[in-house]
Amino acid sequence: MIELNMKNQIKLIEYLVYLNQNLIKYIKKIEILKSKKSINLILKDAKFLEPTIFFLKKHSKNQFELLSDIFSIDLLSNTNFYRFQVFYALLSLRFNIRINIIINLHEYQKINSIFYIYKNASWFEREIWDMFGIFFSNHNDLRRILSDYGFEGFPLRKDFPLSGYFEVRYDDKRKRIVYEVIETSQEFRLFEFKSPWETSLNIY
Fold first, then answer.
1. So where are the chain's domains?
2. Quick check: 142 and 136 in contact, CB under 8 A?
3. What is the pLDDT of residues 40-87, one digit of tens each?
4. What is the C-alpha separation between 99 and 18, in angstroms, rounded?
């Protein structure tokens, strides 16, 4: 069992050397996760995304045929120069290994779509656009996917208020759904601090 682990480690190191040699112009940093079956590739710039993903999918020594997920993180509270990080999770069923491609983006920086490489990327990119406002160039159908078409703002940004900006309700007089600005005033609210479970009945 120890010999098998050693062989796997040697193969992993050889594969990392191979990646570094072929993607040295694109990769800023390579990280190995604790599971040793997943690798993080941090790219130098967003413009290197397409050639990197195309190489990882099409080359015979990689064969990352499956795009598992695309997700983003807002780094608003971080002192980092970048606002967002976008992760592309790839899986090679042939070699049983995962690679996460990580890209750092400015707040208004665009990123190229990869839907022509992975068809399912279209849905993931629409979700990121809807939730974070990251724009994907050359996308075939970049529309909101979770929120309403008239929705303003991007709900998963850290500077977006938890209550939102508008509330939706059905108006009986107008017989339709209306959008209204949220009012947080509490002057007409009644607060009863006594719990109904604490009341005692005087039976005797």
1. 2-141
2. yes
3. 999 999 999 999 999 999 999 999 999 999 999 999 877 678 899 999
4. 14
For residue 186, how many other CB atoms are within 10 A of its CB?
8
CATH architecture of 2-141: 2-Layer Sandwich (3.30)
Calculated CA dihedral for residues 114, 116, 117, 123, nearest 10 degrees: 60
Instruction: Give the whole-angstrom CA distance, residue 95 versus residue 112.
Output: 28
Nearest CA to 103 among 67, 138, 73, 65?
Answer: 73
pLDDT tens for 163-179 read: 777 777 888 888 888 87
Residues 6+ apart with CB under 8 A from 108: none
Closest CA to 156 of 83, 98, 81: 83
- The model's pTM: 0.78
